C-alpha cells in the first residue's frame, strides 16, 4: 500500500452499511448450527481510519462442537499473510491483531483483512478504509456559451488523493434570496465538473461553491460570486504561459462556440493570398453581442501558427504575403464582447476545426516538360530554372506580364531546338542525337537567359506596347495585387 | 433426433415438418447467444475480482461457497437428466439470476462508485440473463416441452430473510453470484449444444 501522511490516531464514526435487498442470505461471520464447521467474527467490522493511525482487531472463533480454539489462526491483509509477531492470542478462542502506522487503502472498496483457520480456509473478513478527510476544493471557474446554461469546474484540495471515495457536490444559489440548489450533471468536462442546464437568472449574482465529503469528513470551497452577464473583470489575467487558462478567469463568464462554416479559398490566380470566410456563431444572434475574431494559420508541415489579431466585427478576411503553391491550415475563433453596449471582452472561444487550402503555384510545367525542378541528369539547368522562376515572378509583379509561365518557356525551347536542328543539319556527323539535344538544350538555356535579359530590357524601354518574342507577348495589363 | 435418453418425439412423425429448419435456426441462434454471454460472464468475473482487491483475484483464493436464496449451483446430477429437463432448470436459473445481479450491482455502486464499467456489466448481465432465459423457454415451448405448471417466481425482495451484512461478506456474496451466473450460462450453452444436429449426449 502506498505510504501516507501521519496524523493523529482516530477512528471516525462509521456509517452503517445500508440494508441489502432481501435476496441474499449471508452466513459468513455467523455460526451454522450442527454443521461441524467453525466460523468467526472480526471486530471491528469495516472501520474507517486516518492514515498513520493504528488498529487493534480481534478474530473470535465459534464452532460446533464448542471449544473452538484460536490455535493456528492467522491473518492476511489484501492477500498477504501478516507476520505472526503482530498477532497474539487473547484467550482460547480469540486472536488479536495490532497494526500501526496504517497506509492509505489500496482500493476504494476497502482493504481486505481476513482471519484464516489453520488449514487456510476463510473464517471471517473485515474491510478497512484508511485515508484522509477531503481538503477544500479550489479554483472554481464557470462559463456559459449562451447565457442559458452554466458549466463549472474545480480542483480537489491541494494534495488531491484521499484514498477514500470522495463525493463532490456543486451547489449554487441566488445571492440575496433563494434556496440552495445542487448541480446534477457531473463529469461533463472532466472528472471535477458539473453542468447546470437551465433556469439561470440574468442580471442577478449567483453564489457557487463545492462541497467534498468522504468517510472521514467534509470540506467546502470558497464561494464564487458571479453574474452570468459579467463579461469583464478587474481581476488579473492569467500569465501568457498558460493561455488555456483564459477560460478560467473569475468574473469572465461568457464565451461562445467557435465560428462555424469556415471556408478558405484562393483569390483568383493570386499566388500569395487566400480568402477566409466564416459565419458568426448562431448563439450570439439572440443577444446584443458584438464579436471580434482572431485568425491563425500555418504552413502544412509547420507547427508555428501566425495570428491575425485585428479582425474586428466582420466575417471575412484576406491573408496576403503567403507562399505560392503551399498548403495552409486556417482556424478562426471568436470573442463575444460588447454585451448590451458594454465594451468589455468575454472569453475567447475554442479555435474552429482546421480548414486547409493551397495557394496557386507560380509556375506550372508543360505536358511534356517533366518536373518543374530538373532532376539529377540536368544539373547545369537547375540554377538556371530557379533563376528563371524568380525572374518570371518578378515580371508578373512589376512588368504586367500575367501570362508568363514555364509552359511558354518550354514552348520557346522547343521552337529554339527546331530552329537549331534546321541550322545544324549540315554539321552533324553521326554523333549521338540525345547528347546533341542535351548540348543544344544547354545552349538554348544559355541563350534564353540572354533573350530574357533583352526581353526585360525591351519591356522596360518600350513599355507594354513593345513586341517581345512570340509567346511572351503580354495579353493584358496585369492588375497589381491589393494589399 | 438421435435415440438418446429423454430424446424428444421423432420429428419425422410431426406433421409440421416444415417448421424444423426454423426451429433448428432458433436453436442455433440461442446456442450462439449462450456462447457469447458465457464469454461476457467470464469478463464480468475478472473485472469483479479485480475491483474487490486481493485476495479476490488470487488463484489461491477459496472463499466459502455461500448459499444464495433462490438459486443453487448446477447439481452434479444435472448432466444425467433429460435434455428438456435440463433446459427447464437452465431457464429457471436464468430467471432467478437478474434480481441477484441487480442486488450485487447496487452494492457495488456503493463500494466501487468509480467503476462504471463493472456496474454496466452487472446491469447488462441481468438484462442478458432475462433475454436468454426467455429464449430458452420459447424453445421449450416450440419443442412441446414447456413447463405447464405454475411458474415459480424468483424470491421477492421482501420474502427472504434480511440482514445488514459487512463489506467483506458482501464482496464474497457478489463473487458467488457472478460465479453462479457464469456456471449457469456455461451449462445452458452445453445443453443447447446437445439439441443441435451432431450434438452428443
Number of domains of chain B: 1
User: Largest interface by residue count?
Assistant: A-B, 37 and 46 residues
Oligomer: heterodimer
Rg of chain A: 40 Å
Radius of gyration of chain B: 18 Å
Give the overall silhouette of chain B. Answer: elongated
Q: Biggest sheet of chain A, in brief?
A: 5 strands, mixed
Shape of chain A: elongated
Please indicate the percent range of residues of chain B in DSSP E strands (runs of 2 or more). under 5%
Keywords (chain B): Cytokine, Secreted
Function (chain B): Induces cardiac myocyte hypertrophy in vitro. Binds to and activates the ILST/gp130 receptor.
Family (chain B): Belongs to the IL-6 superfamily.
GO biological process, one term (chain B): cell surface receptor signaling pathway
Summarize the structure.
The complex is a heterodimer of chains A (483) and B (201). Chain A has 483 residues and is an alpha+beta fold. Chain A is built from three helices and 25 strands.
Could you characterize the architecture of this molecule?
Chain A contains three helices and 25 strands. Chain A has helices at residues 381-398, 406-424, 433-462, and strands at 38-43, 48-50, 55-63, 74-77, 80-81, 87-91, 94-99, 111-116, 122-131, 138-143, 150-155, 167-174, 181-182, 185-186, 193-196, 206-214, 217-220, 224-226, 263-267, 270-277, 290-299, 306-311, 316-319, 327-337, 355-358. In chain A, strands 2-9-8-4-5 form a five-stranded mixed β-sheet, with no helix packed on it. In chain A, strands 12, 13, 16, 17 and 18 form a five-stranded antiparallel β-sheet that branches. In chain A, strands 1-3-7-6 form a four-stranded antiparallel β-sheet, with no helix packed on it. In chain A, strand 8 (111-116) and strand 9 form a beta hairpin. By secondary structure, chain B is mainly α. Mean pLDDT of chain B is 83; it is low at 1-16 and 156-163. Chains A and B meet through strand 8 and strand 9 of A and helix 2 and helix 4 of B.
